[in-house]
Amino acid sequence: MLDRKFWEKYFAVYDILNELSTYQELGDKIIDELDIERGDKILDLGSGTGNIALKAKKKGAEVIGIDSSPEGVKIHKEKMPDSEIILGDITEKLPFEGGFFDKIYSSNVIYTIPEEKRKFVFDELYSCLLYT
Q1: Contact indicator for 86, 64 with CB cutoff of 8 Å
Q2: Which of 4, 59, 89, 122 could cross-link 36 (Cys pair, CB 3.0–4.6 Å)?
Q3: Spatial contact of 65 and 7, defined as CB atoms under 8 Å apart
Q4: What is the strand order of the sheet 62-67 is part of?
Q5: Cβ neighbours of residue 113 under 8 Å, at least 6 residues apart?
Q6: pLDDT of 53-109, one tens digit each?
Q7: Global pTM?
Q8: How large is the angle between the packed helices 4-17 and 70-79, nearest 10 degrees?
Q9: Is the pLDDT score of 124 beyond 60?
Q10: In the beta sheet, which residues pair with residue 43?
Q11: CA-to-CA distance for 70 and 67, rounded, in angstroms?
């Protein structure tokens, strides 16, 4: 994973990028693909400053975010004080029981996970999904 100094600098300017139409379109596309139903419990993996979580909440989802950057979590909480967000390492065991979430999404995160840890991360994510 990238180091803390990188994320400090990144999140200091990240929300400026989200004013660009391409970032807005990406967030909208993710929300469309999630096909959110009111009450869906959704994990935002690598939630950063919470831009997509905010869109999902507006659609009626219950969003829980997890991010390893204190800077991203701080900005996320400033935007949405009532948001549920965990400061944690997504390459470690996730703090959720099996079948906890209806849906999971992630944007601009997977490529930051070291290749040797990706299978573990995906196995963890799969175990957190509800099966119907």
Answers
A1: yes
A2: 59
A3: no
A4: 84-87, 62-67, 41-45, 103-105
A5: 1, 90, 91, 121
A6: 999 999 999 999 999 889 889 999 999 999 999 999 999 999 998 889 999 999 989
A7: 0.86
A8: 30
A9: yes
A10: 64, 104
A11: 8
